[in-house]
């Protein structure tokens, strides 16, 4: 294990997406008090990134929040932080553990799951959304991983345009994924441009025509078959 004390200013806290749910203030305060009195028992985990900040935070978001708060109370107290440096080969496993922990601890929105996959690819940790999904969610069924890949592709296509994407239900993100699989991504992007940063409801209404046109392609191996249309009842035979 490569443990180093790194300057806090060299660590980008939001290098990777993690759950955005509000932390329990009481639990956070208790953790901060524990660190203040006993020190940091478990170092944070970082990985190398490109750009102005050399390290990205991989694990320990709550710990880093507490250290920042303590540093504001007593400037200079946590200018450097003990960090475990993860090498590129270790990052997929570490991320998978982080994802597993988040899944058990709190409900993560479908958009956040998709955004995590996209950011993992953007940072070069995986070469595609498919490989990121398989690595970060290895225990899920094939159907569940297919759904997550759909979430990732929705974020990939619409991520910069949606106003409040974290409010989208799983059902709505599924419908967006179906439209993108049907090749309607560009049409959806064009539909969003006129409404700009409108409300989530207005954006959804702008997308509805494209969503309504979406057809699951038979050759798409990830697509679930559409529900069968029941055969009309045969006409009753005429009595003699």
TrEMBL record:
Residues 218-240 are annotated as: Disordered. Residues 223-240 have a biased composition (Pro residues). Pfam families: ParB_N (PF02195). Residues 4-103 form the ParB-like N-terminal domain. This is ParB N-terminal domain-containing protein. It comes from Pararhodobacter zhoushanensis.
